[in-house]
Write a structure and sequence with these properties.
This protein has about 375 residues and is mostly helical. The protein has a domain of about 230 residues. Helices cover about 75% and strands about 0% of the residues. The chain is built from 15 helices and no strands. The longest helix has about 45 residues.
Amino acid sequence: MKEENKLLEVGKVFLKLGCFAFGGPAAHIAMMEEEVVNKRKWMKREHYLDLIGATNLIPGPNSTEMTMHCGHERAGSKGLFVAGIAFIFPAIIITGLLGFLYVEYGQLPEIAPFVFGIKPAVLAIIASAVIKLGKKALKSWELGILGAAVLGLSIFGVNEVLALLGAGIVGAIIFYFKSKITNKTKSIIPFFLLQVPTNVILKLTSLKVFLTFLKVGAILYGSGYVLFAYLDAELVETGLMTRQALLDAIAVGQFTPGPVLSTATFIGYQLTGFWGALAASAGIFLPSFLFVLLLNPLIPKMRKSLFLSAFLDSVNVAAVAIMAGVLYVMSLETITDWKAIIITLISIIITFWFKKISVMWTIAGGAIIGYLLHLI
């Protein structure tokens, strides 16, 4: 297939995913796995697991960075940028529009009934991915024990990055001499994070908005709650916006498709209008493009090293365990009444017994059922 056709294919796949990617990183990664591994065969599931494990160790939105990895696998460095932009584009447009409506009318549209139906549907999709990825990640009983330990730590709220790093180091030491890989990498390129001194800019401009969100994007690990903490320190404590406005912005990022970091678009519009929305969006996502561009070529080299291959196997099983932990916590928060149980059961049946039905239809069906049940 010609490069232009591959780029077009990458753009279409991730634009579609960007329109339906509800439920957070675990759900996004599950949907991606269905599209690029099961359906399109762009890569083997083992390599997809390697990408997940490595991506969890760098700052930024993991699922968005996974789209970039997948785009790179299909269409090279151009595909990396096409996939990332296509995936975040719908979220940026939607949150930008909501930002405009929020400024004009001071409130957000009522979409809670649809979101109520989407969340149970997402559980089935995540469960399917955890099972399939888990089968590839569990290469030995020792890795199973390691994964169970990380699952327990994840459920009890231990920081995800610490759990991944800890599992990687422990696993690498344990499995180092058991590995049959003989080739080794010659070097490892370190990553350095640059914190932008945004406080030197006195006037609130689109440039300052860009630099503020560039700094956040370069150092952000974790969930939307961590994002809230960063933005609270950068924007609320400095008097640039109210905490209620920030809470509304985080809510917008949670219930729109795509990465929660699209919250930046909404906030940017609140601060300096249209150009602020563009500046915030560019700032918060730019570091991810750069990190993935540097990381992607290193992953195959890691597989050629005894120690790093064992490290990656351990991180992979830990990443699947964390997905399982997310599934457990989400289930407790989501399945709270008979309506949620009905939607969950229907979604499980569709996901596991009607495998040819796209996960996009599962999400759309959950939203519709959720709305209809809300009318009862």
